Amino acid sequence: MRTLSFFLILLCGLASCAKKPEAAKPIVIGMELNFPPFEMKTPAGEPSGVSVDLAQAMSQFLGRKIQIEDMPFDALIPSLKTGKIDLILSSMTRTEERAQSIDFSDPYLSTGVSILAGKNSGINSVADLDQPARTIAVKKGTTSHIYATEHLKKAKVLVFDNDGTGVLEVTQGKADAFLYDQMSIYQYYKKNPMTTKAILEPFQKENWAIGIRKDNDALRKDVNRFLADFKARKGFDALGDKYLGEDKKAFAAMGFPFYF
Prior knowledge:
5-stranded mixed sheet; globular
């Protein structure tokens, strides 16, 4: 009887371990840590930036540990769908196409696609892009890439794996323009004022949201509760001041609404 009782206790203990509560597991978050100041690395190689701080705040709010996985942007959705990660928090725009395969949280940032044009390119608006003599650079897998594929039928479209290469094409005169989000265009213009100009008024407005696997309603509701609370506590204002203080002032001077 003692032996039988021992094995029953052991089996119960193993069953408890097998049924580890979901809340005890870390939330695995996918990011491409190559998009400062949102997703980047410290000199020591640690994750840093707006999205990392946001993930850490979510960890505290939900009482769950997080694990950040660095991966290419175009690998994020496949990794989410196959269960390698639980969330995408990587400056991802919610689109109807993406929403067919994954769910999204409530939006937390408003931005849009803008233009970094060559200083002498003659480009002043999106209407100047779709011309036979134009060469336009985009980053693979982004909404800029989607836009160029659907709308720029006459121009030559160059697709790159990273945004830095697209910007370099413009600064060297190999491309007439690079299409990307409003914030990044402003940053790249500041670094290259002698060879580029920023056309910051978005020609396609967008919202960023957190990607969640389909049918994971419990996690989606938790994430939305966190975002609402974080916004109410002015957490986004603090992140803007910490990472984007100069942008906030510049956008106010130009009459553009800030992202958060």
